[in-house]
Design brief:
Length: 399
């Protein structure tokens, strides 16, 4: 079955710049040149919220991993964190000195990375809402910045025609990819964390392996590519282009699967839902569209399962690389599987369950640590207050 248009949201009064799904797919956020952030409900007959606060165009939006916050960046040089409820309260981050083009949460929800026309990439802590540090080696506007799935790396794309990979801890640029013939509009990590894809004004999408720093795939289009998003299985990539089309690329086969026409005028942004069964797109026609993915529904469920079980002891995924290198496709491996004996399959199933249980426990631990960290911050702040008050009392006594 081909991808199909599922919902159609109208309400923005200017070009849509950015779209993102919440974790549970109940909400979709969009930003627009009309200076508003909209939160659409995926449930029919539920009203949309329009959040006003930015003084100029909203360039980017993203839900936090938990879905309890939405970050936005704007031409007014600020980043805002919103609570996506009726009140639509927000707090403002100020450190950039020009338009903020991109916002992205780390997968643990603790950090935020932003990219700006001031040529810098900045990293912030979410719960302390504090600016941490800048990465500043780009020599032109930075259009996009993303954390790797494990949070150890940052990738950024710029009008200086480079894509840079940074080590978050050492804050150093590990590698620059300079193969783009034009500005680089968008970049993102493959779910495995081993590859990145970048889209540019030279009408191309390029996929690089960041371990060997080599180009894996190159797709030549016939229009500027504005945005891209990996399917959670890591096997597909969706792109949005100035020729008004969305394209779905099959990364295993290395070919174009579908071209979708929906927008009138440039398609500016696109994003898969966290489960991959939907994707959303926005355009300069002020419209937000939600599409049902439909392709290989059975297959990518299996793919996600095999990827979970395909995690090495050291936590690295090995699925994508082998597939890209040997061109082995999951469909083939499935037919071979049927020849294996039953016990082996049962053993593997129990192993998968155990691994999934461990992953679940790890998630709980991560959340606990984050809560403890937040409490610690509060305690530190209180302590600081007490000490400051003490100082004041002493000074008053002395004066």
């Amino acid at each position: 079955e081909d991808p199909s248009l599922e919902r159609h949201f109208k309400g923005h009064r200017d070009a849509v710049t950015s779209v993102d799904f919440s974790l549970n797919k109940k909400q979709l956020a969009s930003g627009s040149m009309d200076s508003c952030l909209m939160i659409w409900s995926m449930r029919p007959q539920m009203r949309a919220y329009r959040f006003v606060g930015h003084k100029d165009a909203v360039m980017c939006v993203q839900f936090s991993p938990s879905g309890h916050l939405v970050a936005s960046g704007s031409r007014d040089k600020t980043v805002r964190l919103w609570v996506p409820s009726i009140k639509g309260e927000s707090t403002v981050f100020k450190a950039h000195t020009a338009t903020v083009r991109s916002v992205h949460f780390s997968s643990d929800g603790q950090s935020l990375v932003t990219a700006s026309d001031d040529k810098t990439v900045k990293v912030w802590t979410v719960h302390r809402q504090k600016f941490l540090f800048s990465l500043s080696q780009h020599i032109n506007w930075v259009r996009c910045a993303r954390f790797s799935p494990d949070g150890r790396l940052i990738v950024s794309a710029s009008d200086d025609k480079t894509v840079k990979v940074w080590d978050k801890t050492s804050r150093e640029c590990i590698h620059s990819f300079c193969e783009h013939g034009g500005f680089v509009n968008h970049v993102d990590f493959h779910p495995s964390g081993t590859c990145i894809a970048a889209a540019g004004t030279d009408n191309t999408v390029k996929v690089w392996d960041i371990r060997m720093n080599r180009l894996l795939q190159h797709y030549q289009g016939n229009a500027v590519v504005n945005s891209l998003s990996f399917h959670p299985s890591g096997n597909y990539l969706v792109t949005a282009s100035n020729d008004s089309t969305l394209k779905i690329l099959d990364l295993l086969e290395g070919r174009l699967l579908y071209t979708l026409h929906g927008h009138q005028g440039p398609a500016t942004c696109v994003a898969f839902s966290r489960a991959g069964d939907l994707f959303a797109s926005g355009g300069s026609d002020e419209q937000v569209m939600v599409w049902k993915t439909n392709f290989d529904a059975a297959d990518y469920g299996d793919v996600l399962k095999t990827q979970k079980s395909g995690t090495n002891v050291d936590g690295t995924h090995h699925t994508l690389q082998s597939e890209m290198d040997c061109g082995v496709h999951l469909k083939k491996t499935k037919t071979q599987d049927s020849g294996r004996n039953h016990e082996q399959q049962e053993e593997e199933a129990s192993l998968v369950n155990t691994l999934e249980h461990i992953m679940g426990q790890l998630d709980v631990l991560t959340q606990t640590v984050s809560i403890l960290e937040q409490r610690l911050t509060l305690t530190e702040d209180k302590l600081k207050e007490c000490l400051e008050n003490q100082q004041k009392i002493i000074q008053n006594k002395m004066s």
